[in-house]
C-alpha cells in the first residue's frame, strides 16, 4: 500500500480513492495451464487509470501488458453514453482498462479504450489497435485467438481478425431499439449478467442475445441545473410494466443464424448462459415472478432446448455466479435451496449440507468444485460476516478449505482458479485493504504453497476501523459496533447512536474486513456509537433468513434494526434517547421508513437515494420480493413511504442525485410532495448531475460532512 497525502482528511481521501479501491489489484484471470495470471491495477492509489498486468507464476514477476496512456498517446478517454451507462450498472468508477477478456489459452487479451478495440499478447508483450466500428463494448477473443467479437453502440455484433483485417458485421439491428450481443438493462442491473454473447468452445459459432426494448416505457432524466440541455431518454422497466424482449440466437461465422427456442412466455428472463466442452450449452431461464426456473440444454444445430432441471419456490429463486455449469465428464453443477440449505449439487447428488451456505462456484475441475461459502448454522457461524473458499470432490467427499499456515481464510473478497493455481483476495478486520495471494494446489487439497503476493498500490487509510462483532438479540442478527477512537466509558458516558444500515437484499455490510467499515468508524469518531446490523433479508444466513422478507420490506427489515439496537444497548454505551439512522439506496429507504414508522425509537433520519414508491423501481428486483403490483396493490401500498407521510415527527433529510437512472429522483420528489401535503417539515438535498454512485470527489466528501452536521443539529449535540 502507498502512503496518503499528509493534508488528507478521511472524507477527502475516502472520496478521492473511490473508497480505497484505486490502486488495488482486481479482475484476476488464470491461464488454463497455470503459467500466468492477468489482472488490472493502476500505478498508484491516486491514479484511477487501470493498466493490464501479468504475473508469471514460475517466477512471481509482474509485468505491464497494456498501458492506456501509451495506447491513447496520453490523450483523455472519450466514453460513449452507452459505456457510461454500462459502468453505472456495474458500479464502475475507475478509468483506463476496466475490463478485458482472454482467448482459450489465456494469451491474447482484448479490451476497449475510448470505444476503440485493442489487443495485448500476454507472452510477447505486443499490443495493437484493431480497426473496429465503434464506439464498441465488451470485446472477446475466440478461443483460438484468431478473431475478436465485439458489440457496438449502433447495436451491431461484429468480428475483427486478430491481425487487424476483415472487420465485419455478424448481426445488425433490424429495428430502432434492437441491439445484438449486449445484456439488457435488467440483466446488467439485477441479474449480474453483463455479457450478451458467448463463444463456442471450438470458436466456430457464438450464442448472441438480441434485445428489443421497444416495449419498455420511456422515462426522461432531466438536468434542471442546465435547462438548455435536452433530457436523456431512458428505457426503464418499472414494476408491473413490459420488459425488453430478449431472444437468443446461434450465429455461425459465415452468416448462418438459428433462433434458440424455449417457452419464453412462461420463462421470459434469460439469467445465465454457459458453453463449455463439458456438454451442451446451458441456459438458466426464469419466470416473470422468479418463483420458477429451468436449466435448459441446447442443441446449437437446431436451436431446440430440453429441460434438464426445473425448480420452484414459494418465495423466489436466486441466481448465482458460476452456475449452472458442467463438470468435464458431463455432470450438471448447480446451487439449490431445495434441501432447505443453500447447497451445492453435482449431478443428482447434493454434496454440501446445512452447515454451509453456498455463495458462488469459483471453478469446476476434473475432480473438484471450488466454491465460496458462509456458515449455514449458528454452530458453524461462530462470528458474523465470514466468507471462505472451499473445494469438494464431485462425490461430496474430500472437503477442504483454502488456508495458509494451517489457518483458513475467513474473509475472501474474490477468488479465481485454473491450471492448479488459485488467486484469492482476503481481508481481515484489523488490517487495511486486502491481501492477494497466488497459490498452487497441493494433492491433499489444502493450499499452503504460495507462489506470490500481488502488490496493492492502494493508499493506506488515515484512520483505523475498530469493529466489534456481535450476534444481536434473540434472532442473532449479525452486527458491528463502532465507538470513537480513544473512547473511555467512565469519562465519556453514553453516546448518541447512529444506525448505519443497508439492511436489504444483496447488501451484506457486516463482514470480517477492515476497509468496508472505515466510513462507519469515521462517523463514530465524530462522537457517535455507530451500529451496523444485517437483519433479515440480507445475504449469508441461509435461505429462510433471506426469504423471510417476501412481500414485507417494511416489517421485517425495520423490526430487526430495532431489535439489534435495543439488544446491543445492554452491552455497549448506547443512549437510546438520541438515535439517528442514515443509509443509501435500500438503506435510504430503511432510514426514511424508520423515522416515519418508529419515531419512538429513531429521532433523526438521513435517506440517500431512497426508493420511496416501489412501483417506480424495476421489474426483476421489485417483483421478486413484492410480487406484481396489479395483483398485490396492498403490498406495494404497505411497503412504499408516501402513505406514512403524515406520521413524520422527526427531522428527515432526503438526498438524491438528479441524474440517477436507477433510483430516479421522482422517488424523493413524490415523498417530499406527500410530506408537504401532510404539513410535515423536512429537508431535501438535490445533487445536480449526480448519479446513484455519487462518483464526484467533492460531492462524496461534502455529503459526509453535511450528514454529520445535520445529525448533530437535530439531536442537539
Automatic annotation (TrEMBL):
Residues 72-91 are annotated as: Disordered. This is Peptidase S9. Coiled coil: none annotated. Residues 518-716 form the Peptidase S9 prolyl oligopeptidase catalytic domain. SUPFAM superfamilies: alpha/beta-Hydrolases, DPP6 N-terminal domain-like. Gene3D superfamilies: alpha/beta hydrolase (3.40.50.1820), Dipeptidylpeptidase IV, N-terminal domain (2.140.10.30). It comes from Streptomyces rubellomurinus (strain ATCC 31215). PROSITE patterns: PRO_ENDOPEP_SER. One of its GO terms (biological process) is proteolysis. It comes from the Bacteria.
Amino acid at each position: 500500500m502507498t502512503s496518503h497525502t499528509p493534508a488528507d482528511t478521511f472524507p477527502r481521501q475516502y472520496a478521492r480513492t473511490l473508497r480505497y479501491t484505486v490502486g488495488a489489484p482486481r479482475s484476476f484471470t488464470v491461464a488454463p495451464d497455470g503459467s500466468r495470471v492477468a489482472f488490472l491495477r493502476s500505478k498508484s492509489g491516486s491514479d484511477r487509470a487501470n493498466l493490464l498486468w501479468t504475473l508469471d507464476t514460475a517466477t512471481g514477476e509482474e509485468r505491464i501488458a497494456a498501458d492506456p496512456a501509451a495506447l491513447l498517446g496520453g490523450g483523455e478517454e472519450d466514453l460513449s453514453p452507452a459505456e457510461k451507462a454500462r459502468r453505472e450498472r456495474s458500479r464502475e468508477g475507475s478509468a483506463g482498462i476496466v475490463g478485458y477478456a482472454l482467448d482459450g489459452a489465456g494469451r491474447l487479451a482484448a479490451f476497449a479504450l475510448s470505444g476503440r478495440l485493442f489487443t495485448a499478447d500476454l507472452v510477447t508483450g505486443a499490443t495493437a489497435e484493431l480497426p473496429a466500428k465503434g464506439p464498441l463494448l465488451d470485446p472477446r477473443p475466440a478461443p483460438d485467438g484468431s478473431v475478436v467479437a465485439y458489440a457496438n453502440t449502433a447495436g451491431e455484433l461484429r468480428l475483427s481478425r486478430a491481425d487487424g483485417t476483415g472487420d465485419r458485421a455478424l448481426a445488425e439491428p433490424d429495428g430502432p431499439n434492437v441491439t445484438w450481443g449486449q445484456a439488457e438493462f435488467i440483466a446488467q442491473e439485477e441479474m449480474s449478467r453483463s455479457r450478451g454473447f458467448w463463444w463456442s468452445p471450438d470458436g466456430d459459432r457464438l450464442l448472441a442475445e438480441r434485445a428489443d426494448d421497444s416495449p419498455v416505457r420511456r422515462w426522461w432524466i432531466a438536468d434542471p441545473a442546465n435547462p438548455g440541455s435536452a433530457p436523456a431518454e431512458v428505457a426503464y422497466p418499472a414494476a408491473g410494466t413490459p420488459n425488453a424482449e430478449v431472444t437468443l440466437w446461434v450465429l455461425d461465422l459465415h452468416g448462418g443464424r438459428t433462433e434458440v427456442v424455449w417457452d419464453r412466455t412462461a420463462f421470459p428472463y434469460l439469467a445465465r448462459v454457459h458453453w463449455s466442452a463439458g456438454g451442451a450449452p446451458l441456459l438458466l431461464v426464469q419466470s416473470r415472478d422468479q418463483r420458477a426456473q429451468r436449466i435448459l440444454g441446447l442443441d446449437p444445430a437446431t436451436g431446440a432446448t430440453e429441460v434438464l432441471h426445473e425448480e420452484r419456490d414459494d418465495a423466489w429463486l436466486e441466481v448465482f455466479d458460476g452456475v449452472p455449469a458442467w463438470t468435464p465428464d458431463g455432470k450438471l453443477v448447480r446451487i439449490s435451496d431445495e434441501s432447505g440449505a443453500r447447497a451445492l449439487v453435482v449431478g443428482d447428488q447434493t454434496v454440501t449440507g446445512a452447515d454451509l451456505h453456498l455463495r458462488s462456484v469459483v471453478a469446476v475441475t476434473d475432480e473438484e468444485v471450488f466454491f465460496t461459502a458462509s456458515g449455514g448454522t449458528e454452530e458453524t457461524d461462530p462470528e458474523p460476516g465470514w466468507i471462505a473458499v472451499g473445494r469438494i470432490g464431485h462425490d461430496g467427499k474430500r472437503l477442504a478449505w483454502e488456508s495458509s499456515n494451517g489457518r483458513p481464510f475467513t474473509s475472501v473478497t474474490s477468488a479465481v482458479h485454473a491450471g492448479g493455481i488459485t488467486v484469492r483476495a482476503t481481508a481481515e478486520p484489523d488490517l487495511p485493504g486486502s491481501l492477494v495471494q497466488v497459490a498452487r494446489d497441493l494433492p491433499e487439497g489444502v493450499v499452503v504453497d504460495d507462489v506470490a503476493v500481488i502488490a496493492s498500490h492502494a493508499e493506506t487509510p488515515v484512520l483505523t476501523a475498530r469493529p466489534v462483532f456481535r450476534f444481536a438479540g434473540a434472532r442473532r442478527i449479525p452486527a458491528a459496533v463502532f465507538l470513537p477512537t480513544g473512547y473511555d466509558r467512565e469519562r465519556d458516558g453514553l453516546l448518541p447512536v447512529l444506525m448505519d444500515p443497508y439492511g436489504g437484499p444483496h447488501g451484506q455490510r457486516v463482514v470480517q474486513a477492515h476497509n468496508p467499515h472505515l466510513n462507519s468508524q469515521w462517523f463514530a469518531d465524530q462522537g457517535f456509537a455507530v451500529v451496523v446490523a444485517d437483519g433479515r433479508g440480507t445475504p449469508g444466513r441461509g435461505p429462510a433468513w433471506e426469504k423471510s422478507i417476501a412481500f414485507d420490506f417494511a416489517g421485517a427489515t425495520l423490526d430487526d434494526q430495532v431489535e439489534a439496537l435495543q439488544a446491543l444497548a445492554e452491552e455497549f454505551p448506547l443512549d437510546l434517547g438520541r438515535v439517528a439512522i442514515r443509509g443509501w439506496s435500500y438503506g435510504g429507504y430503511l432510514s426514511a421508513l424508520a423515522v416515519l414508522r418508529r419515531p419512538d425509537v429513531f429521532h433523526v433520519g438521513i435517506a440517500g437515494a431512497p426508493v420511496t414508491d416501489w412501483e417506480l423501481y424495476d421489474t426483476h428486483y421489485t417483483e421478486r420480493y413484492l410480487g406484481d403490483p396489479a395483483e398485490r396493490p396492498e403490498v406495494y401500498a404497505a411497503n412504499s413511504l408516501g402513505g406514512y407521510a403524515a406520521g413524520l415527527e422527526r427531522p428527515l433529510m432526503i438526498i438524491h442525485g438528479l441524474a440517477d437512472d436507477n433510483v430516479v429522483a421522482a422517488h424523493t420528489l413524490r415523498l417530499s410532495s406527500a410530506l408537504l401535503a401532510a404539513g410535515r417539515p423536512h429537508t431535501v438535498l438535490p445533487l445536480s448531475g449526480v448519479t446513484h454512485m455519487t462518483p464526484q470527489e467533492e460531492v462524496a466528501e461534502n455529503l459526509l460532512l453535511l450528514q454529520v452536521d445535520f445529525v448533530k443539529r437535530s439531536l442537539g449535540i
